[in-house]
Amino acid sequence: MDFTIHQVTWHDAEPLLREVREAVFMREQGVSAELEWDGLDENAQHVLAVSDTGQAIGCGRILPNSHIGRIAVLPAWRGKKVGTALLQALLAYAQSRHFPEVDLDAQVQALPFYRNLGFAEEGEVFLDAGIPHRKMRLKL
Ligand SMILES: CC(C)(COP(=O)(O)OP(=O)(O)OC[C@H]1O[C@@H](n2cnc3c(N)ncnc32)[C@H](O)[C@@H]1OP(=O)(O)O)[C@@H](O)C(=O)NCCC(=O)NCCS
């Protein structure tokens, strides 16, 4: 089971990015279409993980204000470092744009995942789409 990570635009990869986010955020986690499709995708840089059989298995994005989000890996592919590779690709993009830091709103169950890559929590737990989150930041 191998995979590759691709830097993509919304224009080029919209159907594949939608497929992963619909499976993970909307069907698995119950996020509404209204909240998931927030109008920020066109101006974001996206990353897409593709399996060696050509299936879209994971994704993520970074906004022009250096906010990372929408990191998702299909259940069958979790625990195989796909999420780590997606996040590393977003960090490489941020560094190439000379962003001094990046931030994200982590679902609390995913805090250890982001800590592994050096992110630190700040502030209190808050609800977004009914899911507990915490702000995290990484200086580059
Ligand atoms: C969170 C998510 C993106 C992680 O992707 P992944 O490919 O499974 O993560 P990796 O295999 O790269 O994990 C790296 C490390 O993070 C940690 N980790 C990953 N997911 C975790 C979780 N849900 N809870 C606790 N630790 C986790 C593990 O310690 C893992 O280290 P290990 O392999 O040495 O055990 C994935 O579980 C997912 O899509 N979850 C549902 C959507 C979601 O919650 N997205 C995050 C929104 S903030």
Structural commentary:
The chain has 140 residues and is α+β, with helices and mostly antiparallel strands. It has a domain at 3-99: Gcn5-related N-acetyltransferase (GNAT) (Aminopeptidase), CATH 3.40.630.30. The protein has 4 helices and 7 strands; from the N terminus they run E-H-H-E-E-E-H-E-H-E-E. It has helices at 10-28, 33-36, 82-96, 111-116, and strands at 3-8, 45-51, 56-62, 67-73, 101-107, 120-128, 131-139. A 7-stranded mixed sheet has the order 1-2-3-4-5-7-6, with helices on both faces. The termini are far apart. The structure holds coenzyme A. Coenzyme A binds at residues 24, 71-73, 78-84, 106-107, 109-110, 112-113, 116.
List the helices and strands and how they pair.
Elements: E1 3-8, H1 10-28, H2 33-36, E2 45-51, E3 56-62, E4 67-73, H3 82-96, E5 101-107, H4 111-116, E6 120-128, E7 131-139
Parallel strand pairs: 4-5
Antiparallel strand pairs: 1-2, 2-3, 3-4, 5-7, 6-7
This protein binds coenzyme A.
Coenzyme A (COA) is lined by residues 24, 71-73, 78-84, 106-107, 109-110, 112-113, 116.
What name does CATH use for the topology of the domain at 3-99?
Aminopeptidase
User: What is the percentage of strand-forming residues?
Assistant: 35-45%
Count of distinct strands: 7
Overall mean pLDDT: 96
Provide tags for this entry:
Aminopeptidase; 7 strands; 140 residues; alpha+beta; binds coenzyme A; globular; single chain; seven-stranded mixed sheet
